[in-house]
Specification:
Strand content: 25-35%
Distance between the termini: 57 Å
CATH class of the largest domain: Alpha Beta
Strand order of the largest sheet: 13-12-9-10-11-14-18-16
Radius of gyration: 21 Å
Number of domains: 3
Oligomer: single chain
Number of helices: 11
Shape: globular
CATH architecture of the largest domain: 2-Layer Sandwich
């Protein structure tokens, strides 16, 4: 029997877990990504060095090589190019391209949410070369590119004098030169991962999230979440409503939201796998293979009951991406994290240049705590328990 071929779209360290899940399915795994130094190229059965954000170039490769399946990795460019190609060629696991666009474009998602009374901050959209409309929002505001990630180009604006510079920064960070301006909502940040099968959520997890180095870029998370059960129920019901409204295909719907004591606001949704090994945190905590669940619809498989049976005892796990506020040449780092167990995933070699957040990271740390109280106390402070040893010479 001929081995089936799958194309993994993306080659960075975040995609390695996806690659090995596909390998374990006894598939012939090809990888595309334009950096030959990316780790997935070491393990792939074949590599293609293209810019996969160019959806026409990706579609040409897929048509030429006649892959049986395509799987996006952990960024919006990979997912949206795959969704476009899947619609042209009938690949499994993807929503229609216009549906995918609603979920991955901040302006389209805000407009859809308000149309259907989903809980999102009030906003307006500003396109390329459009003039500023009369402001009907209340300060403070957040100004965001419609297509950015990792908090790039996002600014908090406290008054009218700061607005123009924030708009210019966001437009500069957007490939489409489009932005959204939305009211700032006060609360804590959380994430929700829902795995969908036949239009219903069959497995879901909540995590606490923190931005402690670069504003609006999550660098710390933990599971299980401290979020109140009543708010979890409201979020889950809202996500089920969204799934039904958009008739979403099987697979992952990952959402970030801000919540107060009894209400919440959806910030963004995505159908791709979160990056920075987020799934490893869930797997360490629950015993459920997050990445395996993510890949199932793309290779025409269904989620089985035994795949979503969590451990009897949920472990308290934290995750932290180590980053810096200014460019650095790193030698090493050390930590004194209070924990039951600490795992370190290095991403840089000694002497390698490390750009400032949100553009680079030194390592990812996973921490198993003794109990939930320790987890809730330590996770938001993880950066304070890590010391980076750097070259004294300046980069510039």
């Amino acid at each position: 029997m001929m081995q089936k071929k799958v194309l993994l779209v993306g080659s960075s360290f975040s995609a390695v877990a996806i690659l090995f899940v596909l390998k374990n399915q006894h598939l012939h795994v090809s990888v595309c990504g334009n950096d030959p130094a990316d780790p997935c190229h070491q393990y792939a059965d074949a590599s293609y060095f293209i810019d996969y954000s160019d959806k026409e170039a990706l579609s040409k490769l897929i048509a030429q090589e006649k892959f049986d399946f395509i799987v996006p990795s952990c960024n919006d460019y990979a997912y949206m190019s795959c969704a476009w190609a899947a619609e042209q060629m009938g690949y499994a696991g993807f929503d229609a391209f216009d549906v995918a666009s609603i979920l991955h474009n901040k302006n389209l998602f805000r407009a859809f949410s308000q149309q259907h009374a989903l809980a999102t901050p009030r906003f307006f959209h500003l396109g390329a070369n459009q003039t500023m409309p009369p402001l009907a929002l209340s300060y403070p505001l957040l100004v965001k590119p419609v297509d950015s990630f990792s908090g790039r180009g996002v600014s908090k604006v406290n008054n009218a004098e700061e607005l123009s510079a924030a708009i210019d920064s966001a437009i500069h960070s957007s490939r489409s030169a489009e932005i959204v301006v939305e009211e700032f909502v006060d609360g804590d940040l959380y994430s929700h991962s829902a795995f969908i099968q036949n239009g219903q959520i069959v497995f879901e997890v909540f995590a606490d999230e923190f931005c402690t180095v670069y504003p609006y870029q999550v660098n710390c998370s933990n599971h299980p979440s401290r979020l109140a059960a009543s708010v979890k129920h409201k979020v889950s019901a809202s996500m089920q409503q969204l799934i039904s409204l958009l008739k979403l295909e099987d697979g992952l719907l990952h959402t970030q939201f801000i919540a107060g004591p009894d209400q919440f606001w959806i910030i963004e949704c995505m159908r791709r796998c979160p990056g920075d090994l987020y799934g490893n945190m869930i797997t360490l905590s629950t015993g459920v293979d997050y990445v395996d669940l993510y890949t199932q619809p793309f290779i025409k498989k269904t989620i089985l009951a035994e795949q979503i049976e969590a451990n009897t005892e949920i472990k308290c796990i934290g995750r932290h991406t180590i980053s810096v506020t200014e460019p650095t040449i790193t030698l090493s780092f050390s930590h004194n994290i209070p924990s039951k167990m600490t795992q370190i995933v290095p991403l840089k070699c000694s002497g390698e240049a490390l750009a400032s957040a949100p553009y680079d990271k030194l390592a990812i740390v996973f921490v198993e705590y003794h109990d939930q109280a320790q987890m809730l106390s330590v996770t938001p402070q993880l950066a304070q328990f890590i010391t980076i040893q750097a070259h004294k010479e300046k980069l510039f």
